Amino acid sequence: MATLIRGKEVAAEVLKAAKNDVDALLAQGVMPCLAVILVGDDPASRVYVNKKKEKCEELGIRSLEYKLPAEATQEELLRLIGELNGDKSVHGILCQLPLPKHLDEQLTVRAVAREKDVDGFTCLISSGGEDLMPCTPAGVMEMLKFAGISPRGKKCCVIGRSNIVGKPMAMLLLGADGTVTVCHSKTENLPAVTREADILIAAVGKPRFVTADMVKDGAVVIDVGVNRGADGKLLGDVDFDAVEPKASYITPVPGGVGPMTIAMLMKNTVRAAKAQSRV
Ligand code: GUN
Questions:
Q1: Known catalytic membership, residue 23
Q2: Peptide bond preceding 254: is omega within 30 degrees of 0, i.e. cis?
Q3: Quick one: pLDDT at residue 15?
Q4: First vs last Cα of the chain: how many Å apart?
Q5: What tens digit of pLDDT does each residue of 115-153 get?
Q6: What count of Cα atoms within 13 Å lies in the side-chain half-sphere of residue 247?
Q7: Closest atom of ligand 1 to CA, residue 45
Q8: Which of 204, 241, 261, 273 is the least crowded, having the fewest Cβ atoms under 10 Å away?
Q9: What is the pLDDT of residue 124?
Q10: CB 90 within 8 A of CB 84
């Protein structure tokens, strides 16, 4: 039987600390503020943006929403980001992805001022600086810490190499002294590679992709997957029922990594507000 690492519990701790920081900032006359940009009418994006706004309100962070029509031009979007970059009352800027197809995500993400990039999309983890970290991988690191698991000296395997999760995840594990392998769709004999891992992170985007034969006995298994089954049910990247008996620790879906992303976004927003107000 594996021990469950529940993101909800870890997220609650992160949010409690963020709330304390918000209160301290408010007492010093600084109101942390997150600007969220939503382009078009993607229903899932609408839900995510609403959740982020609700969490801001809960913590006393001011949230601003900028809604652009699906046919907005790249220039309009960049102009808005430029205005928010220059607005001293705004500490964090988040442009919800995906964007409509005619817009360039890289160009958009890179337009956000580094110190206001609460998504951590422009952060240079590889240079070891003080940038805001990407929320989901940073959330995974918090979960490992909470469970008392150190990547130090351990074989860590990340399946997936996305800019948002896989790549920054690998760099954070490396920064924590893990010995890191990154697997992807071209990896040969994937199960042989993943079976070596003491800490296995699944960030593939395919339901139940990680099966029991891919997991070493006693491994720590972190499931970053958020997939919808045909019945609309939330499914992780890991075949939980088959893998759980082999693992020492495992994260469930839902209730695992998911709640960490918003919690880390709040933490980043508070960090950004602190840094920009120098209190
Ligand atoms: N779309 C899916 N995940 C994310 C995220 O973490 N940040 C933003 N901005 N868009 C997303």
A1: no
A2: yes
A3: 98
A4: 46
A5: 999 999 988 776 667 789 999 999 999 999 999 999 999
A6: 29
A7: 1
A8: 241
A9: 77
A10: yes
Residue 25 to residue 23: CA distance in whole angstroms: 5
**Burial readout 22-39 (b: 16 or more C-beta within 10 A, e: otherwise):** beebeeeebebbbbbbbb
- Answer whether 34's CB lies under 8 Å from 269's CB: yes
102-111: which pairs have CB atoms within 8 A and are 24 or more residues apart? 102/74, 103/39, 103/72, 103/74, 103/77, 104/74, 107/74, 107/78, 108/74, 108/77, 108/78, 108/81, 111/78, 111/81, 111/82, 111/85
> What is the model's pTM?
0.95
- What would the two tokens of residue 118 be? 């609460």
Give me the residues of the chain with pLDDT under 70, please.
Answer: 126-128, 279
Q: How far apart are the C-alpha atoms of 85 and 115, rounded to whole Å?
A: 9
Q: Which of 39, 48, 165, 268 to mutate to test the pocket of ligand 1 (most atoms within 8 A of CB)?
A: 48
Residue type, 36: V
Give rounded-to-5 percent helix, strand, coil for the chain. 40, 15, 40
Atom 4 (ligand 1): residue with closest C-alpha? 97
So what's the pLDDT on residue 274?
96
Radius of gyration, alpha carbons of the chain: 19
State whether residue 234 is helix, strand or coil.
strand
Rounded to the nearest 5 degrees, what angle is found at the Cα of 224, between the Cα atoms of 146 and 53? 80
Q: Give me the pLDDT at residue 279, please.
A: 57
CB-count burial class (<10 Å; 0-12, 13-18, 19+) for 7: buried
In degrees and rounded to multiples of 5, residue 120 shows phi and psi of 70, 20
Tokens of 162: 């996305």
Nearest to 56 by CA among 37, 85, 34, 36: 34
Helix (H) or strand (E) holding 279: none
